Amino acid sequence: MKLVLATANPNKAREIREILEDRVSLIPRPQDVPSPMENGGTLLVNARLKAAAVSCATALPALAGDTGFEIEALHGRPGVDAAYFAGPRATSAENCEKAIASLRGFPRPEQRRAWLRTVALMRWPSGEERWHEGACEGIVATAPAGDARFGYDSVFIPVEGDGRTFAELQRYEKHRLSHRRRAFVGLVTQLGI
Description:
Elements: E1 2-5, H1 10-20, E2 25-28, H2 43-58, E3 62-71, E4 78-79, H3 92-102, E5 113-123, E6 129-140, E7 156-158, H4 171-177, H5 179-190
Parallel strand pairs: 1-2, 1-3
Antiparallel strand pairs: 3-4, 3-5, 5-6, 6-7
């Protein structure tokens, strides 16, 4: 099955390709298809906006996802606004710094609980869609560790892991535990692919 990958983020695109391996044939999003405003307020709506824009522009099924970062002590923030936590043009490093700074008064690991959550959605040109959500529970580190890949990898320690951040894990180790894998593999499994 040929699907157009709706993301323009090269790091996310690489991860999705690695996670799905040969289960689907992923076509990169055409450069002339602009990114829609991700102002839907939820991960599901944002994934839907991306998939609809790409599917309409290409007349092919589109695969999209949206990811949020939920910190329990911050009442779920930054949530769907994870990419903009430190501001509208914030880098991953700046967002990670803000997450750490926001938890300075919370020294114990149980006070630093967080979840990375992804919604993966496939939309056909007819408007039909299917989606699946994946989550990974973890702890926000007190300092970045590992090769900063992207997102919150350098400050997220998955509880199912061995105490290393996502950025300290090998890619295959991260994929085994990740929210993104759970969302995208869950979706293609649901579709019988």
